[in-house]
Structure formats: C-alpha cells, structure tokens
Amino acid sequence: MRVDVMTALVSFERVFEVLDLEPLVREAPDPVDLPDQAVSVDLDDVTFRYPSAAEVSLASLEQGAGDRLGGSDVLRGVTFHVGPGSLVALVGPSGAGKTTITSLVARLYDPTSGTVRLGGVDLREASNRSLREVVGMVTQEAQLFHDTIRANLSYARPEATDAELWEALRAAQVATLVESLPEGLDTVVGDRGHRLSGGEKQRLAIARLLLKGPGLVILDEATAHLDSESEVAVQRALDSALAGRTALVIAHRLSTVRGADLILVVDEGRIVEQGRHSELLAAGGLYAELYRTQFSEQPTPAAG
Ligand SMILES: Nc1ncnc2c1ncn2[C@@H]1O[C@H](COP(=O)(O)OP(=O)(O)OP(=O)(O)O)[C@@H](O)[C@H]1O
Ligand SMILES: [Mg+2]
C-alpha cells in the first residue's frame, strides 16, 4: 500500500506540473474577433527569439533538454504588408526564418518585440477561436491521423456532408485516388493504415483546408520530390485553394513565385528584398541568385 501511495504521489506531482505550466501564448481578457474573410497581414518591426528550453519544458519530464540554448534573435526588424486576397511567396536560404515568420502569423508564438496584425487586429488582442477560424495551415510534411479519410477531413468541419467532402477532394485533385480505394472515404490511412505518398497526403491536407475555408492560408510547399504529373495536380489544387483568400506560401516551385503578387526574400532573419518576380530578377540581388541556383532547373509552365 505504502509503495503504491508513494508512486501515486509522484505521478500527481507531474500531473500538477503540467497543469501549472504557463502557456507561452495567452488570450487577452477581452479578446476581439478577427474578421471572418480574406484578411490583411502586417508585421511591424518584428524581432523574435525562440524561448529557451527552460521556458517551455517541464524539468522532470525532460532530461538533457537543458543544454539546448535559447539562442539569438531569429528575426530582426521584419516589416511587411500583405493586402487582403494577395498571394505572397516567401523565399530564402535554409534557416533564414521563413517558417518562423509563418509561425508568428498563426500565433504559435508571440514576437519578442514588434506587432503582428491580421485584418488590422493585434494578435495579442485577438480571440483564439476567431484566429483558428481565420488561419488554415498546410505544412510541408502533412500529418494524417490513423483513422479514416472521412475522419481526417471532417474534423475541419464536422457538419460537412459526403457531397461536400467529395467536392473538396475533387478540387484538391485527390478524388480519383480516394475512389480507387476499396473502402473509399472509409479507408484507414496513416502509418499503420493505407500508406499515401507525400504529394497525396499534401493534397488531402489541401482538401481539408478547402472544407474549412479559412480567410488566410499558410502553406509550406513540398520540396521537389513530386513527379511532373502530381506537380500539375498540386498546382491545380492550389489554384482553387488560394482563390479569394490571402495566402502566405513558402515557395519551392518556380510557378508559385512567378504567380505571386509579392515576393519576400528572407535572409538571416531579415527581409532583404521585396517585389515581383521581374523586378527582383532585374535588381540582380539575392533573389536573382536564388533564382539561378534553386528555380532555374525547373521546367517553365506554359501559362507562366
Ligand atoms: N523551435 C526552435 N527553437 C530554437 N530555434 C529554432 C527553432 N526552430 C527554428 N529555429 C532556428 O531559427 C532559425 C530559422 O529557422 P526557420 O525554420 O524559420 O528557417 P527556414 O527559413 O524555414 O528554413 P528551411 O528553408 O530550411 O525550412 C534557424 O536558425 C533555426 O535553427
Ligand atoms: Mg522552413
């Protein structure tokens, strides 16, 4: 008995430690709802450094995490404006801070200094509920739950009908794939279920995004492991996913950068250049160099 009680007490300590952990991002006492539409995105002189391991982790659950350093500023003086409904491409070398910028826009972290505004509202004043309604994210490695395709899609909008699910699948260019599966929408996917390719998973994630219909889309494009057929399919899926929304795309594909209303070139935590494809190419700076090294081997799409 005594051993059991002592063991239980240790477990309780850990449970309370988790319950007591202060979240990094807190909702304001009187939160404002963000407009439910294609919002503008403004970063104003944003500086950011990742919290140190001590600030985010639980001492008793993490061994050896303490030697991970908080580090230095990852973003410095980042300022840009994105109008509602525009498509913005973020480009830059690896480790430049592109993913970090998108994490701040989705308020996964608050900036160390400066402000992030969606539709003119400072995210520190926005309600969590409206923030989650407005922002939709598709990450580079799309995650699916070990569950049916139906369940993986409909948690974005539980009241969606089968007809709406199929419509989203068609727009995301994966309907043919799902139709060909023996159990259709009820096929179990994920690590231990039916294995889908990276491109197929990303298109399912896009279908989920279409069901949700957010005003702001954040997309980390899959790096070039797609064959040219699924490349065309993903491009079509994106065209429908991005229509009428504000989009922030971490672009690895030439077709996205060329079509963007604004290209932000990120290097070492700063926006070093911004403009459209032809302007930046003519300027002969970092973008022109990235264009030569990263994008030029890709085939130019006929429509530009
Ligand atoms: N969770 C984290 N904790 C501490 N430092 C981080 C964390 N995530 C990223 N960093 C650091 O922040 C910097 C910017 O990283 P980020 O992921 O934003 O780069 P990126 O431009 O998206 O690069 P890539 O093109 O390789 O995806 C890097 O130096 C990285 O090591
Ligand atoms: Mg990244």
Automatic annotation (TrEMBL):
<keyword id="KW-0472">Membrane</keyword>
<keyword id="KW-0812">Transmembrane</keyword>
<dbReference type="InterPro" id="IPR003439">
    <property type="entry name" value="ABC_transporter-like_ATP-bd"/>
</dbReference>
<feature type="domain" description="ABC transporter">
    <location>
        <begin position="41"/>
        <end position="293"/>
    </location>
</feature>
<dbReference type="Pfam" id="PF00005">
    <property type="entry name" value="ABC_tran"/>
</dbReference>
<keyword id="KW-0547">Nucleotide-binding</keyword>
<keyword id="KW-0067">ATP-binding</keyword>
<dbReference type="InterPro" id="IPR017871">
    <property type="entry name" value="ABC_transporter-like_CS"/>
</dbReference>
<dbReference type="InterPro" id="IPR027417">
    <property type="entry name" value="P-loop_NTPase"/>
</dbReference>
<protein>
    <recommendedName>
        <fullName>ABC transporter domain-containing protein</fullName>
    </recommendedName>
</protein>
<keyword id="KW-1133">Transmembrane helix</keyword>
<dbReference type="InterPro" id="IPR039421">
    <property type="entry name" value="Type_1_exporter"/>
</dbReference>
<dbReference type="InterPro" id="IPR036640">
    <property type="entry name" value="ABC1_TM_sf"/>
</dbReference>
<dbReference type="InterPro" id="IPR003593">
    <property type="entry name" value="AAA+_ATPase"/>
</dbReference>
